[in-house]
Specification:
The complex is a heterodimer of chains A (about 500) and B (about 450).
Chain A (H helix, E strand, L loop, with lengths): L33 H5 L18 H12 L22 H7 L2 H4 L11 H18 L3 E3 L5 H18 L6 E5 L5 H8 L3 E5 L9 H7 L4 E7 L11 H10 L3 E5 L12 H4 L3 E3 L2 H4 L14 E3 L11 E5 L2 E5 L16 H37 L4 E2 L9 E4 L1 H4 L5 H10 L6 E2 L8 E4 L7 H20 L1 H6 L11 H6 L10
Parallel strand pairs in A: 2-3, 2-4, 4-5, 5-6
Antiparallel strand pairs in A: 1-7, 6-7, 8-9, 10-11, 11-13, 12-13
Helix pairs in contact in A: 3-12, 5-12, 6-7, 12-15
Chain B lengths: L8 H11 L4 H4 L21 H13 L8 E2 L13 H6 L2 H4 L11 H18 L3 E2 L6 H16 L3 E5 L4 H12 L4 E5 L11 H4 L4 E7 L10 H10 L3 E6 L17 E5 L15 E5 L12 E5 L5 E5 L6 H4 L12 H38 L5 E2 L8 E5 L4 H10 L2 E2 L2 E2 L10 E5 L6 H15 L1
Parallel strand pairs in B: 1-13, 3-4, 3-5, 5-6, 6-7
Antiparallel strand pairs in B: 2-8, 7-8, 9-10, 11-12, 12-15, 14-15
Helix pairs in contact in B: 6-12, 7-8, 12-14
Classes of the chains: A alpha/beta (about 500), B alpha/beta (about 450).
Chain lengths: ~500, ~450
């Protein structure tokens, strides 16, 4: 074996370095140190330095460069991960987020000296409000799930203000897991609404649940089967007639930019995942940003502070007596706001509409090319993503997870698997608008090849992946014998 | 054509032919006509890259950043030095444009760095386990409060007055849902009132929350707080800034059950308040009740070491309404910044950062308190931040010093009316003696 080739790179930082080696360069103290130490009671001081690695700068750079190469990212691989919207992250967004006037601005700088940042946030909020047809937007939530929490808390505050005691929130069985989780944290009882045969909301079931104790109905649009709910306007009217608010999970907003607006459809609240629709990077799990938009009747309840414009001055307005309060220490994930703002300004109205058109075109192209090789969860056309079922392959001994692993070997990241929960052996594919026909063809060819292999050589698929740095990992062992930190032993 | 969209008109036509649809419009047939937006979105038209850059730079120039000004601002966000290597490493697209590691075989890079992060945070805080990060320090504390309720089955959270007031607001928002009651412990002399504490912590207390160094910069007696909390059967939650833990004793060694805090100082840019890094560490016995993501070591089919997301039965995508939290997105990239920061600083560098910050803050405090009319507001020991009492309105002093290109500190009036004459000043390792001396001269003139 060659020394430390990428395919064998298995080190942790703690297994590198040598006592005395350093990667830092800090100035010598220009003020007395001992006197300052003496001012702190000895019992508050650490008796010995923390056990952190002792490595050189080259050790650090080589280690993390090599670790990065163990990952698939959008820059290197097609990421057909449904409902996660992994599209190209423009490089200019990163340059803009790093301009010192943004990156090096302290959140408690006097507001008069942060006018550029406040203006950017105010304008981004206005642009998001226009895109969603909402009356007001708060940029504060740090992620989609925190946006959901904000939305549900605003709905709660609204009902409280009207002296209405409503204790339940309805959520479709096809919903993202964050919906019921956010709702439960807000103190509501979660009630599941069934889906019909096409994956839409079962209107009869919804009707049956819509009592005077229902605070809200929370639904993803387009839904997690990749379909636009055709009776959405009717559904919203039904809810409103019974005094329930309607929340839109905006995770799939990528499909409808410039085509339809949640506010026009009648939704009262929606959140935006800036890291999905608005090209801020996903970074292996975040940071995200989950601004939340509301109709006028919910505006008094927005998180504090609200960015207000008075004449030509922008201020943080804290005097909001009905606000649900704060969600984050400061004003939201501003670095993500800079990236999303850059993106919206780069695209303009026509560009955003073209985004959704191409997202829909690409998803339908995949659906068409694969429909005779896999079962469809719902008939087409779809919106920006499509859901297949590996039901047929399962009978041959090949599961959705096996197919996902085989794709890794063929040079693609995997679709979402086993989601939505209501589809057996689900494979949820979202190509996004940034991918070309060429890439989609290569991906479809791979999927068709796997469907054929399932018939001729299922063992090959069950053995996958074999080209990745590690093969299938023992999840049960990880959960039964949790090893969550390095202890010096391998 | 638009440069982020790859399909040409010819390719679009070829694809529509395969689909068997006359136009993209036809694919949108399920969107009812009545639901369509009948006009283009009212947005600024698409900007050319170079025009947009010029405009963004103008917006940025309207901000007083810590490059153009000498920064003494703190209050939960600090101007610590960020080694250049961090930016180069996080911008590698394989880290930057990856998703949550749901396919571990294709995500070992992210998973290994998170495992390293968990190890380093556990070591710094003196705790058994750390999660893979939460949004920010404030939401970490809010999650800790909810977790304390679920662990103890109790209904009150007792918060020291030294806990960052912005965090207290976030805790109040989160605790409103399940109806947790918040009670405050006064800190009239900058640290918790030791006489009031035992009276407030009792049989209903799920957690006592202590921040050290606290919002006023003062160090709290964590060990005493732990005794009081534990005697009442409550958990002790410590809020801390991990950058200081190269010098300060680990909260876990002083009796903390949960340690949370803001990790921004570990190589994450100021960025007007976010994205930041929520640190969350706990004792082993609480691991199955922790919020957010955890990465564990395991083996693959061939017996090779590998890493996976684990104990996922706590999480929202499996447990839905019964999950320990609703957290889905963590801040993996910020956690990566912190991991690389700690890799670079290592055992002795982090201690050096802490020592320099401590020494410069004490030099500055001594120098500034010599100005006639200016005094340290509290006598308690402090670390890198302190509260000054000024003879003139802090807001006006801040505005005056901004003209000399100093970000002088945080006026405390909006946080506590009793401290309306006070300014919170933070000094990190980045401030030089020369800058501190110049600041002292400018402040002397401003208050004269």
């Amino acid at each position: 074996m060659p020394y430390d080739t990428q395919s064998t790179y298995d080190r942790l930082l703690f297994e590198l370095g040598a006592p005395g080696r350093i990667a830092w360069s800090l100035p010598e103290p220009d003020v007395p140190v001992d006197a300052a130490r003496a001012a702190v009671p000895a019992r508050y001081l650490r008796p010995a330095p923390p056990e952190l690695p002792e490595v050189s700068e080259l050790d650090v750079v080589r280690h993390y460069s090599r670790l990065s190469q163990l990952n698939y990212g959008v820059d290197t691989h097609f990421y057909p991960l449904g409902s996660c919207t992994m599209k190209y992250n423009p490089k200019i967004n990163e340059d803009m987020a790093r301009v010192p006037g943004f990156a090096r601005l302290h959140p408690l700088a006097p507001q008069a000296l942060a006018q550029g940042a406040l203006r950017l946030m105010h304008e981004l909020a206005s642009m998001l409000a226009e895109i969603a047809g909402m009356d007001a937007v708060s940029l504060q939530p740090a992620a989609g799930a925190q946006g959901e929490l904000a939305g549900v808390l605003m709905i709660k505050a609204y009902h409280d203000a009207n002296r209405e005691k409503r204790t339940k929130v309805l959520v479709p069985d096809s919903a993202h897991g964050t919906n019921p989780a956010s709702t439960a944290i807000a103190g509501y009882q979660v009630v599941e609404v069934k889906s019909d045969a096409n994956g839409g909301v079962d209107l009869l079931d919804l009707e049956g649940h819509l009592g005077p104790d229902v605070a809200a109905f929370m639904i993803t649009m387009p839904n997690t089967l990749g379909n636009f709910e055709p009776r959405i306007v009717e559904i919203i009217e039904m809810c409103h007639a019974r005094g329930a608010q309607v929340y839109m999970d905006g995770a799939n907003l990528n499909a409808i930019l410039g085509i339809a607006r949640p506010g026009d459809l009648g939704f009262d609240v929606c959140h935006f995942n800036l890291h999905k629709t608005f090209t801020t990077p996903h970074g292996g799990g975040g940071p995200g940003a989950g601004p939340v938009g509301v109709k006028a009747h919910l505006e008094p309840f927005l998180p504090t502070p609200v960015i207000a414009k008075r004449g030509e001055r922008y201020t943080l307005d804290w005097k909001r007596p009905k606000s649900i309060g704060k969600l984050q220490a400061f004003w939201g994930n501003f670095g993500m706001h800079v990236r999303a703002y850059t993106y919206v300004r780069t695209m303009g109205a026509d560009g955003l509409r073209a985004v959704s058109e191409n997202a829909v075109l690409n998803a339908n192209y995949i659906l068409k090319r694969l429909e005779s090789h896999y079962d469809l969860a719902a008939p087409g056309p779809c919106m920006h993503e499509c859901v297949l079922s590996a039901r047929r392959q399962k009978k041959l001994g090949v599961t959705a997870m096996d197919i996902a692993k085989r794709l890794l070997d063929l040079g693609f990241y995997a679709p979402s698997t086993y989601f939505p929960l209501i589809v057996e052996e689900a494979l949820m594919i979202e190509p996004t608008e940034t991918e070309s026909k060429e890439t989609l063809d290569a991906f479809c060819d791979a999927m068709i090849q796997i469907a054929k292999e399932a018939e001729t050589n299922p063992e090959l698929i069950r053995q996958a992946p074999v080209t990745t740095p590690v093969r299938r990992l023992d999840q049960t062992k990880a959960a039964r014998e949790p090893n969550l930190r390095w202890s010096g032993k391998r | 054509m638009q440069r982020y969209l790859s399909n040409t008109a010819d390719e679009q036509r070829a694809m529509l032919e395969v689909i068997g649809a006359p136009s993209i419009e036809a694919l949108l047939a399920r969107v009812p006509a009545t639901a369509r937006l009948p006009r283009p979105l009212d947005l600024p038209s698409a900007a050319a890259e170079m025009d947009l850059i010029a405009e963004m730079r103008r917006l940025a120039a309207a901000n007083a950043d810590a490059d153009g000004y000498t920064c003494f601002l703190g209050g939960g966000s600090y101007d610590h030095f960020v080694p250049g290597v961090i930016n180069h490493m996080i911008l590698r697209g394989e880290f930057f444009t990856a998703y949550t590691p749901y396919q571990p075989e294709a995500s070992q890079g992210t998973l290994r760095t998170i495992y390293e992060y968990q190890t380093m945070i556990a070591e710094l805080t003196g705790m058994d386990v750390a999660n893979a990060s939460i949004y920010d320090g404030a939401s970490s504390l809010a999650e800790a409060a909810l977790m304390a309720q679920s662990v103890t089955g109790r209904t009150e959270i007792v918060l020291g007055a030294g806990v960052n007031p912005l965090y207290r607001r976030v805790v109040a928002t989160y605790c409103g849902g399940p109806g947790l009651r918040l009670r405050d412990v006064p800190a009239p002399e900058g640290v918790l009132d030791g006489a009031a504490l035992p009276k407030l912590v009792g049989a209903k207390t799920a957690a006592l929350v202590v921040q050290s160094p606290n919002f006023y910069g003062c160090l709290e007696d964590i060990a005493s707080a732990a005794e009081i909390a534990h005697a009442a059967g409550a958990l002790l939650v410590v809020v801390t800034d991990p950058v200081n833990l190269g010098v300060l004793e680990a909260p876990g060694k002083q009796g903390a059950d949960l340690v949370v805090g803001e990790g921004q100082g570990l190589g994450v840019p100021l960025s007007y308040g976010g994205p930041y890094l929520g640190v969350f560490a706990a004792k082993q016995e609480f691991v199955r009740r922790m919020p957010g993501r955890l990465v564990g070591a395991t083996v693959d089919l061939d017996g090779r070491r590998g890493f996976v997301l684990t104990l996922q039965t706590r999480e929202q995508h499996i447990r839905r309404a019964k999950a320990t939290s609703n957290i889905c997105t963590n801040v993996a990239l910020c956690a990566l910044m912190a991991t690389i920061y700690l890799a670079i600083l290592g055992k002795r560098g982090l201690s050096r950062v802490g020592e320099l910050s401590l020494a410069k803050a004490h030099y500055a405090a001594e120098r500034l308190a010599r100005i006639p009319g200016v005094a340290l507001r509290f006598g308690a020991p402090f670390f890198k931040e302190f509260t000054l009492k000024l003879p003139k309105s802090p807001e006006r002093v801040v505005a005056r010093l901004a003209r000399d290109r100093f970000l002088a500190g945080v006026p405390l009036k909006p946080f506590d009316r009793k401290l309306a004459d006070c300014l919170l000043v933070a000094v990190t390792e980045k401030r030089t003696k020369e800058e501190i001396d110049a600041f002292a001269e400018a402040l002397a003139k401003a208050v004269a």
